[in-house]
Design goal:
The chain is of the alpha+beta class. It has 5 helices and 7 strands; from the N terminus they run ααββββαβαββα. The chain has helices spanning about 5-15, 20-30, 60-70, 85-95, 135-140, and strands at about 35-40, 40-45, 45-50, 50-55, 80-85, 100-105, 110-115.
Length: about 150
């Protein structure tokens, strides 16, 4: 049976090549165990573009490539093994700021970002949830409250 970590890396490669189903990629991320570096008692994250990115890795070699660039010198990097769904469904919303998941960021050709948008994180943590039209109203042929139908 294929390891979930390898499956996620393969789905990422497909999307980066312009093929594959984005929903399948999100589903694979949610089912995968990711290795998240731990620093000062918390999960390692970085801020970029107004978003806090929790950094996860599909396997120990990917984590090691990251640690060579950002780790504590020759010391081993401590990490937590977390289900992708737990990261985006529980940890991201608990941060109280726009946050997403960045996978394999040390691999220029193998990284993937899962931004804080509907369909990836819970609506309460999604930056686009407040501005997204009321889909039920649009589907029913009505304009969403307070907006025009476009």
């Amino acid at each position: 049976m294929e390891q979930p970590r390898a499956a996620l890396a393969e789905r990422i490669a497909e999307r980066r090549a312009g093929v594959g189903d984005p929903r399948a990629l999100v589903g694979e991320m949610r089912r995968s165990i990711l290795l998240v570096p731990v620093s000062d008692g918390g999960l390692w994250s970085a801020r970029s573009g107004g978003v806090r990115w929790i950094c996860g890795f599909t396997d120990e070699p990917a984590l090691a490539r990251f640690a060579l660039r950002h780790g504590p010198g020759e010391r081993p990097v401590d990490y937590a093994a977390l289900l992708g769904a737990r990261i985006v469904d529980e940890i991201v919303p608990s941060l109280g700021e726009p946050a997403g998941l960045a996978v394999n960021i040390a691999d220029e050709d193998g990284s993937m970002f899962f931004p804080p948008v509907t369909g990836i994180v819970p609506d309460g943590a999604a930056v686009d949830a407040a501005t997204a039209p009321d889909r039920a109203a649009v589907d029913a042929g009505r304009a969403p409250e307070g907006g025009d139908r476009g």
